[in-house]
Design a protein that fits this description.
alpha+beta, Outer membrane lipoprotein wza fold like, wza like fold, 3 domains, 6-stranded mixed beta sheet, 16 strands
Length: 292
Amino acid sequence: MIIYFKIDKERKVRRKRVAISIVLLFLVSCYFFGQERYKADYKIGAKDLLEISVFGLDDMNKTVRVSEGGKITLPLLGEIEVEGLTKIELEKKLSQLLEEKYLQSPQLTVFIKEYQSKRISVLGAVGKPGPYELIGRQTLLQLISEAGGLTENAGDKIIVIRQLQDGSSTALKISIDNLIVEGDASLNIPLEANDIINIPVDKEVFIYVFGQVKRSGAFKVKKSNIPTLLQAIAQAGGFSERASKRNVLIKRIDKDGEEQKIKVNVKDIIKGKKKDIQLLENDVVYVPETIF
């Protein structure tokens, strides 16, 4: 028999999901409202693909890829440094170069077809995982909203893997509750090129409660919210009248595959003399019958 475990804070979870949906919906609207401003501020970098059009000078109409050194090569003008320039700044620079040698008041446009120099990856429990262009200054919540928001099986943490200047990397762990539900703005960090945002899926696991409880069996729980010993017994309906609370046994398989047996006097936990025990995935709780 499998009993689906419903946590005591089910209402809180529902409120959390509603809050997340409202916040992300708001951020989606803000994101698209500010997107054009971000594109205008975007600084061109290596591997970006640029489309350049010059009115009245067809030889200059080219689609070029920015080199690793931050340069492009154009007919008539040769090699040009473009890294660090915005679209508007590059248009002005090319206009000045053309005006000096070839055209009076040239009319040209620069269109950034691919933003390859600043990309991030979003993985895990979002609607649309994959690579994303990092245009201008964008924050963690803005990218999550662009990626379709969190799915129902999202865990309780966001992990941002970031490359450091020395070539090493670090992992930033951010609580979804603190960021979205509590609204801690300090956790809505600005993103950097090559960041990897991972929202781990909160998979379902099992714990087992047998013996002198009112409803024994296997309990399906979220891995991020595995119950404590007392919580698991409560979910099993509590102790039966013949339960031995002094001799509760937890059976656990360690990393080496060896079985551990942990004997617990639950009365001490109830009285506050000892801390409740956090159960782990696949733990088996056995409540024996009292001798008398």
